[in-house]
C-alpha cells in the first residue's frame, strides 16, 4: 500500500459514497486509476466493507464514556461475562498497561450513567476503575 492508497482510504473514510470522479479530482489521479485501486484494495482484503452511520446511531446514547477497570486475581472472565449482560455496555476491550479492561458505556442521562458505574464497581473482582466521559466526537466509523 502506497501513499496514494492511504489517501484514497482516508477519502473513503470521510465519504464512502463519493463519486469516482470526485475522488480522482481530490487525489489528482484519473477516475480509471481510482476504480482500479479500489478494486485492488478490495481484492487484497484491505477494504472489507463500507458502512452507513445513521442519525439514530449517533443520537442513541447522549451520554457516553469509557471506564477503565483493574481486575484482581483471576476474575477477568467472570467480570467480562457480567459486563456482557449489562444493556448500557456498548463494547468491552481487553488491553495492556495499567488497566485490564476498557468498557464503552452509553446511556440516556448522567444519572443512568452514574448508576451503571456504581453497578460495575460493585462487580466481584473489580479492584480499581477510572472513567472518562466522551464530550464530543470528531470522527466515528459507526
Low-confidence stretches: none
Large-scale geometry: elongated
Order of helices and strands: HHHHEHEEHE
**What's the tally of helices?**
6
Structural class: alpha+beta
The quaternary organization reads as: single chain
Average predicted local confidence, pLDDT? 90
Question: In angstroms, what separates the terminal alpha carbons?
Answer: 24 Å
The fraction of residues in strands falls at: 15-25%
List the strand order in the largest sheet. 2-3-1-4
Report the helical percentage: 40-55%
Q: Roughly how many Å is the radius of gyration?
A: 20 Å
The tally of beta strands, per DSSP, is 4
Summarize the biggest pleated sheet: 4 strands, antiparallel
Task: Describe the protein in words.
With 142 residues, the chain is α+β, with helices and mostly antiparallel strands. It has 6 helices and 4 strands. It has helices spanning 3-14, 20-27, 31-43, 55-59, 76-84, 110-121; strands spanning 63-71, 89-94, 101-107, 126-134. The protein has a 4-stranded antiparallel sheet with strand order 2-3-1-4, with helices on one face. The radius of gyration is 20 Å and the shape is elongated. The two termini are 24 Å apart. The model has no long low-confidence stretch (mean pLDDT 90).
